[in-house]
Design brief:
The chain is about 30% helix and about 20% strand. With about 575 residues, the protein is an alpha/beta fold. It has a nine-stranded mixed sheet with strand order 9-10-11-8-12-7-13-14-17, covered by helices on one side. Strands 2-3-1-4-5-6 form a six-stranded mixed sheet, sandwiched between helices. Strand 18 and strand 19 form a beta hairpin. The radius of gyration is 26 Å and the shape is globular.
Length: about 575
Amino acid sequence: MAAPLYTTASGLLFHAGKIIVVTVGLPARGKTHISRALERYLRWLGVKTQVISLGDYRRKVLGGAQNLPKDYFTLGEKSPETERLRRNVKTGCEDLIVEFFEKGGQVVIYDANNGTVQARQELAEKFDKAAVHVIFLESVLTSDELVEANIRSVKISSPDYKNTSPEQAVQDYWSRIKDHEKYYEPVVETNWPFIRIINVGEKIMVNNIQGYLQSRIVFFLMNIHNKYRTIYFARSGQSLIEHSYKADSDLSPAGWEYAERMKEFVLERRAKALEARGVNSDDRRLVIWTSARRRAHHTAWPFFATSTAVHRSSLSAAPSPPESVTSGSAPASPDVLPLSQTPPTSFTLLPPAATPAPVPVPRIKVIEKPQMSEINPGVWDGLSPDEAQERYPEEWERFLRDPYAFRAPRAESYHDLCVRLEPILIELEKEQEDLLIISHASVIRCLLAYLIGLPASEIPAIEIARGDLLEVVPASYGVHSRAFHFWDGPGRRHNNDESDHHTSLNFYENFAEDTKYRTRPGTGTVTPAEPALPHHNHQHQHQHHHHHHHNHHHVHHVFREHPEGHLEQTEFVNE
């Protein structure tokens, strides 16, 4: 998350006070998905936020559903023992909320059904007396198909259904829903602020929302969805001048080869992923975002070679990429390209109408995002680490102490970069198609940290190696991620001969990967490290699931290189 822009005596931001967002809705309505997404966004803003889930607390205290009385999930008449269990769970969960506020928390998202007017009124009055602003957040799904999709994708993998067949789990969960429907009362309490989301973002209704932070919550919820999509991240190819931020140079010959290999690998990997899900690749569009820097958007040019570029508005053919991009060889002078060969900012790529392709060609849309330019190194531009340390010793010491917050003269800090990227985060949440982001290491670090939920101090330590494709699939309880290695050529590793500035990387941008210094996650200090080992295996993958728990543990996953040559994710846990 991004650190707050400012601090206050109370620790609460935006003069918003304390807020409890109370979710409302029948089971399997996407409440958990919405809650976790909102938590991630508010934490990014620097707001101390936590999801407290009644279901998670119940499982922690009482175990899975198989350990509970049969009438626990019914809303009719219950045995005294069941009433006592439910009351204890509810009281214990509310005590957790109070404790979080007492420890300086600002926003709690209370993830529970809260399906009756009486239950909501009691809860609202309790926290209103404690000077906590109450907002009801109701999630409604209008079709059984959407509900069943939620059940199959999330609920049947719950600990409640351990050792239960999927069909039995689905049947049992439907019975829970049918029972809740008998007693469910939609939100009509206009005396309390409420937000009603229909079909996870298809439509939104708002009542009595007040203040800046509450409005930001509504704005975010207007841009989310729960459709399955995959987000890929890859660095741009090697450029002719690597060490300079100001020199917006084109790709080197190796950079063009890298771009061609990336295209082949991404399309191959995506086709396999779609096939495994039973999805026709012709029915799914791939959206590519690049920065406005030449090395980034030219890395996307090989994707043109398989399609005809068609401008969305005029449907007129866009300029073709250079012949060298189509053939995969490097152009004779790649740093000098006519403006007429610059692709439009936004276009859709479709298969040629007259020429049948031997294999299906995916629909591709490429968009330049100027906000995704790499971090600005200021006066450190073009310097080696030793030169920066020699010329700016005081600044260097501050940099080592806090790489996230440090700002070199006339430069950006990582915090500045995170603030600049906030509009990209909103568009990232809104995008429903598969997405490939071709950008710079600093930008990818920030976006990954947002998706995974890493604390701000860990962002500069995330190693993003050129030649790795990072695959992230957002899910209800976090994200699933994999790393694939596809390139071992020039530009993957920093050239330690710092006298050759044309092959040296911008160290301010590539500090985590490409210098003799490494950050130890969680310590806030930087120490010398051994040089990275060469990478030999071309298609090894590593997979991990990132889950956001309510216990405030932050898990930092960094893709590193293993002595045996395959990708390894190193895990750091901060209490």
